[in-house]
Amino acid sequence: MDGYKIFSASSIPGIHSGCAKAFKHFKEITNGKRLPGTVIYDGLLIYRHCEAESFLTRFLVHMIEAERTYSMITFVGEPLVDASTESFKSLFSLVDYSRIYKDIKNIDDLEYTETV
Q1: Which ranges in 1-116 belong to alpha helices (H)?
Q2: Helix and strand counts by DSSP (H, E) for the chain
Q3: Which of 23, 54, 65, 71 is 20 to 30 A from 38, alpha carbon to alpha carbon?
């Protein structure tokens, strides 16, 4: 059961389909038991350039709340440049713990800023 599987998406409906595939995958590898899984999303806010931001925000809130219902752990990675958007603020208001990193030239210089 160790390891990971990537479900890629190229649209908002694709994200939803990818989530459904991930749920089925978790169920399959756990023999139907409901065990907490970990889901990592990266760069979802890029879709705000293709869809109305309010639609994207509602979808992401729905997705994160559904994952909480199933005791899933969700990680979301978004670029700092999107921090001023409503989608980013809504998304990060739902997480239990968030960290934002500053732009760096060398990985050894990586420092995290605590968010409130």
Answers
A1: 12-29, 53-69, 86-94
A2: 3, 4
A3: 54
Cβ–Cβ < 8 Å for 81, 100: no
Q: What is the pLDDT of residue 116?
A: 46
Domain limits, the chain: 12-114
Question: Two tokens at 54?
Answer: 């309010």
What would the two tokens of residue 18 be?
Answer: 């990818």
Percent of the chain with pLDDT over 70: 77
Query: Could you read off the pLDDT of 50-96 as tens digits, one per residue?
Result: 888 888 888 888 888 887 887 777 777 777 777 788 888 888 888 76
48's CB contacts (< 8 A; 6+ apart) are 56, 82, 85, 87
**What H or E segment, with its residue span, contains residue 77?**
strand 73-77
Q: 10 Å Cβ neighbour count for 91?
A: 24
